[in-house]
Amino acid sequence: MRPITFAFCLLVLFLSACNPSDDTDQNDAPSLEFENKLDLAKTFGGSQQDDALSVVETPDANIAILGFTQSNDGDVENKLSTDSDYWLIKLDLELNILWQKTFGGSNDDRGQSIITTTDGGFLVTGFSRSNDGDVSNNSGFHDFWALKLSSEGDIVWEKSIGFSGNDRSHSVIETIDGGFFITGFLDVSASGGSGNDNGESERPKSLFEKHGVGEFWGVKVNRFGQTEWRRYFGGSNNDRSYDVIETSDGSLIMIGNSESNDFDITNPKGSYDFWAVKVDLQGNMLWQNNFGGSSIDIAYSVEQTLDGNFIMAGDTRSDDGDVTNFKGNADFWLVKFDDEGNAIWQNTYGGSDFESARDVILLQNGNYLVCGSSKSQDTQVTNNFGQNDVWSIVIDENGNLINETNIGGSDLEFAQSAVQLKNSKVVIVGSSESSDNQITENKGDKDILVLILN
Question: Which fold has domain 5-19+34-453?
Fold first, then answer.
């Protein structure tokens, strides 16, 4: 989600702001303090299901949110049907809609990840079942679907990538060479073993080369959307990638979960593990490693740390193996690892019920914010408004809990993605089904939820 240079740019900005010789008016500089308190909450949507999966700050210091909508009323404009379409919303800092766009065809299309690009536009990705409307091609069930957009949300190019099965993209980054790397998972059974190629060959691979049900799938495209290579990694069961980051040497680290114990997986821990795979810019695997216990452990997000290492965030249901101090049912689980895939520390966060972390970001003050959902009201979780609440925690570089907050109503709230703005406030996006407590309005069924914290 976040390019490697992000953490170091923040460090440079922080040091510059502290330099007494800097001519910048310090009274105009944003505070680096972040108290993790709710400043503003707002919902967007219509009478059907609407969800936000990704958020970025735009070059003009506004907010862009990507998800999907099934609505054709309420806040949703220029949409006639109730099938799922990508939904891109640009908001100002008061959460007023500046413009919005829907993208898709007549079938199921769900946006998952948005980034700003060096030319001032956007790259969005997710998965699509359509082969009409904005979607020029579909190879079967769900395909990766990526769109390069202008700064106003107009389509520059779009591309479907996939085979006859369920192939879903979950994250994208702009690479150091000006292209893009898209990660998700490939239904290898349906592809017949195809998917390790330069994007042109679809010849079936030998039985030995076929892995299993689902694989980490990385697709490298150039800035025009032309495929340079495709590679899958995994074993004979379900292995799914949810995020990717570029390292300082131009390599790529994909993270997610692995259920397998064969082929590329050499150190399985249990049912599902956190799994990290590092590849070079030609798609060659440099290393891979599993982290977890005997139960289900799934990683959803990865961030680089200020010391050049990495943090994975997700959830664990294990109380053994690599997991210590398990709180109950499911916890936020964070693992810090080095550039060789070796664990540095791990920690759990939560209460006696169910917690799941979906994003981790580096804050301007050197701490980290982790957001997701919580059902607990004990141990480290001090409040709960109903069922699942948005739960936001702040930790230091060693994983120590600094503060936490719950946000929600009496129904279901989930957080999916976060970004810190230049003004030091944090935007968290996800979904809400409530219309009480801290959520003042429900537009119908499930709405996009946007929170600003300070």
Answer: Methylamine Dehydrogenase; Chain H (2.130.10)
Q: Secondary structure of the chain in the HEC alphabet?
A: CCCCHHHHHHHHHHHHHCCCCCCCCHHHCCCCCCCCCEEEEEEECCCCCEEEEEEEECCCCCEEEEEEECCCCCCCCCCCCCCCEEEEEEECCCCCEEEEEEECCCCCEEEEEEEECCCCCEEEEEEECCCCCCCCCCCCCCEEEEEEECCCCCEEEEEEECCCCCCEEEEEEECCCCCEEEEEEEEHHHHCCCCCECCCCCCCCCCCCCCCCEEEEEEEECCCCCEEEEEEECCCCEEEEEEEEECCCCCEEEEEEECCCCCCCCCCCCCEEEEEEEECCCCCEEEEEEECCCCEEEEEEEEECCCCCEEEEEEECCCCCCCCCCCCCEEEEEEEECCCCCEEEEEEECCCCEEEEEEEEECCCCCEEEEEEECCCCCCCCCCCCCCEEEEEEECCCCCEEEEEEECCCCCEEEEEEEECCCCCEEEEEEECCCCCCCCCCCCCCEEEEEEEC
Question: Domain coordinates of the chain in residue numbers?
Answer: 5-19+34-453
How do the pLDDT tens digits run along the chain, 454 residues long? 454 444 444 443 443 444 433 443 444 455 678 999 999 999 999 999 999 999 999 999 999 999 999 999 999 999 999 999 999 999 999 999 999 999 999 999 999 999 999 999 999 999 999 999 999 999 989 999 999 999 999 999 999 999 999 999 999 999 999 999 999 999 999 998 899 998 765 444 554 466 778 899 999 999 999 999 999 999 999 999 999 999 988 999 999 999 999 999 999 999 999 999 999 999 999 999 999 999 999 999 999 999 999 999 999 999 999 999 999 999 999 999 999 999 999 999 999 999 999 999 999 999 999 999 999 999 999 999 999 999 999 999 999 999 999 999 999 999 999 999 999 999 999 999 999 999 999 999 999 999 999 9
Residue 262 near residue 280, CB atoms below 8 Å: no
